[in-house]
Write a structure and sequence with these properties.
mainly alpha; Lysozyme; 58% helix; 0% strand
Length: 192
């Protein structure tokens, strides 16, 4: 039973009924057939710059990130302040971020996790926030709505949280939980 595939199917059906794009759905790189074709073929990226290296993608405007957060918060019933807090601490709102261990995009999804969530391009902000929010919702459900444990599991993995029955005794994870909760309080009070 693939719960995420079922959720994605429901999400796609809701989007079909309401006429809104499904979170993480394909958006053409440019209007018209040429843009749709380029996006479908993965050619929506800028061409390599002189010297053979690809130009860095443009930063994602804060308003676009906020819209993605609100859309996915509503879809998955996750507090938008928590989603923003995770994004702030994972990538600093940089959709092009890559960690030293290979986590990608705004919510720093590992390639295996992204694939299990149906995310084909973890650097696509829509797909990343949709997948990351689904993952966060799953962790909240798994740990009975306990934000502390869900945040710890987002960082250290759910197995580590289950092994210790609490936040694992890893300095990085304890700092991460503290920082995400501080950001959560900040965003919950209405700050950017």
């Amino acid at each position: 039973m693939d719960v995420f595939a079922d959720i994605s199917a429901v999400q796609a059906r809701i989007a079909e009924i309401t006429g809104a794009p499904a979170p993480g759905s394909f958006q053409p790189a440019a209007p018209g057939f040429a843009g749709a074709l380029a996006g479908a073929l993965g050619a929506g990226s800028p061409p390599p710059a002189a010297g053979g290296t690809a130009a860095a993608p443009a930063p994602v405007p804060p308003a676009q990130i906020d819209a993605l957060v609100q859309q996915n918060a509503s879809t998955w019933q996750v507090d938008p302040a928590l989603i923003k807090a995770v994004i702030a601490n994972e990538s600093g709102f940089d959709a092009n971020a890559t960690s030293g261990v290979g986590a990608q995009g705004l919510m720093q999804l590992m390639p295996e996790t992204a694939a299990s969530l149906g995310v084909r391009d973890a650097y696509d902000p829509g797909q990343n926030v949709a997948g990351g929010t689904r993952y966060l919702k799953g962790l909240l459900d798994r740990f009975g709505g306990d934000k502390r444990l869900a945040i710890a599991a987002y960082n250290a993995g759910p197995g580590a949280v289950e092994k210790y029955g609490d936040i694992p005794p890893y300095r990085e994870t304890r700092n991460y939980v503290q920082n995400v909760l501080a950001s959560f309080d900040k965003y919950n009070s209405g700050a950017r």
